[in-house]
Amino acid sequence: MDILKSYINGEFVDSGEYFDNINPVNGEVIAGIAEADEAMINHAISSARKALYGPWSQLSVNERSALLHKVADRMAEREQEFIDAEIADTGKSLFQVKTIDIPRGTANFRFFADQVKYQGGESFVTETANGEKALNYSVNKPLGVVAVISPWNLPLLLATWKIAPALACGNCVILKPSEETSSTAVLLAQVMDEVGMPKGVFNLILGRGKAVGDKLTSAPGIDAVTFTGASATGKQIMKSVAETVKPISFELGGKNAAIVFAHADIAKAIAGITRSSFTNCGQVCLCTEKVYVHRSLFTPFLEGLKQAAENIKIGYPLEQDVFMGPLVSRLHQQKVLAYYQLAREEGAEVVTGGGVPVFNDERDNGCFIQPTILTGLEDEARVNQEEIFGPVCHVSIFDDEAEVINRVNNTPYGLAASIWTEHLTQAHRVAAQIEVGLVWVNTWFLRDLRAPFGGVKLSGIGREGGEHSLAFYSEPSNICIKIDE
Ligand SMILES: NC(=O)C1=CN([C@@H]2O[C@H](COP(=O)(O)OP(=O)(O)OC[C@H]3O[C@@H](n4cnc5c(N)ncnc54)[C@H](O)[C@@H]3O)[C@@H](O)[C@H]2O)C=CC1
Ligand SMILES: O=C(O)/C=C/C=C(\O)C(=O)O
């Protein structure tokens, strides 16, 4: 059986302690994962610190940029291996992995390799009250050694979204991917090795969150932590970094709403919300879990969404036209099924779905689940307040704009929303009042890597994307030069 190993100071290392990597399509063990121990974590940190002050610090921005382009080139050459690995870990459809996960992984390196070349600083000519003059200007320095903690839902995409800008800005990185999805991270470590990334600049630590992640985030040798995952885990990490006052960048959970106004193009709204609720089995932090539909469109909308959900093909990742594979793990399947049960207990009407599909083959040992539509619950129901992270949405009626804005904002989360209306003035007006980091109008998950990306409230701290990422991974340092006249 394959053993996935950590990559520290340019070497793949095996701790001798293993846990299983499971294929969620059929529950079979596909590899063993060697869990890093404390000595390995310390070795990764000391190697990264050495590299930070060693050859890595000697490279110019252009040289770092060229090396990151080489990473992207090599990932593109090995694209099929990345595709196979991501599918094996997650069971996602080939279509999704080929069009979203893997190309975005490569694009993240190319984007930040270019973007960093245009990173500017500030400058001021200073005149003091007593007539002195000076030139103040800032230079960008790396933060140091950055711990990247990434989740299982878009494994390569979300890890590289952090690694690429961190390296572009001259930092060294220690990646801890989710224990559910380590395979593409191991391939990425191989790529780093192949392109000649200096030893210690990129390190990979495999293992479970509490056992390994916590040791990493609390270590004094780590200068900053960037994390995507559950809000509850974000709270743990905040406690863990408090002692050493590290900068953090958090992209956390969401309980995202879609609003279908009376002026919506209903066919567009149904197609868009089918995608926003069920893409990746609902396992994207941006997915819609609450839909508010104007009373005038409620019945045809619900009927259309039900038909669309029932037409979704669930199955093997490589099967033609499959849109939904399994959830990532048995544990996550149990979590989502518990919410389906809770919805019934809270009094929901299950419009469609609500259980597990039956295949009468090996897939019945996998982690599949039905796309599910609920209605009839109050906004205060737990199912309408807590992040489920599965292929499920609750559909409610609303009557007026002020009411729906209030209801959409009635959540501890604040990540994303989508608005469906052909009335552009209304779209502008409403978008400005929704308490989230991202609003889409008549679309969903249409991304521009330069745009600010992140959430408010329980959904995160800081913004990623373009200059926002570069700002997080850089430490501006001011230089003041006296001008004598
Ligand atoms: N992007 C998102 O918004 C995501 C949200 N979730 C939410 O989180 C729920 C639970 O999924 P999990 O896999 O448990 O997510 P998680 O947030 O616990 O895992 C994400 C990463 O954090 C690591 N981690 C866990 N505990 C840690 C700790 N104490 N210190 C440092 N690192 C730690 C994990 O090993 C993994 O690499 C999901 O049901 C979903 O609601 C999960 C994944 C992604
Ligand atoms: O950067 C993107 O395009 C996607 C981001 C998705 C997440 O952050 C998530 O699901 O956690």
What features would you describe in this structure?
- The protein has 485 residues and is an alpha/beta fold.
- Helix content is 38%, strand content 22%.
- The protein is globular and about 75 Å long.
- Helix 3 (61-77) packs antiparallel against helix 5, helix 4 (79-90) crosses helix 5 (94-115) and helix 5 (94-115) packs parallel to helix 6 (155-168).
- It has 15 helices and 23 strands.
- The model has no long low-confidence stretch (mean pLDDT 98).
- 1,4-dihydronicotinamide adenine dinucleotide (NAI) binds at residues 149-153, 176-179, 208-210, 213-214, 217, 228-230, 233, 236-237, 252-253, 285, 332, 335, 387, 389.
- One of its GO terms (molecular function) is oxidoreductase activity.
- It is an enzyme of class 1 (oxidoreductase).
- Keywords: NAD, Oxidoreductase.
- Its EC number is 1.2.1.85.
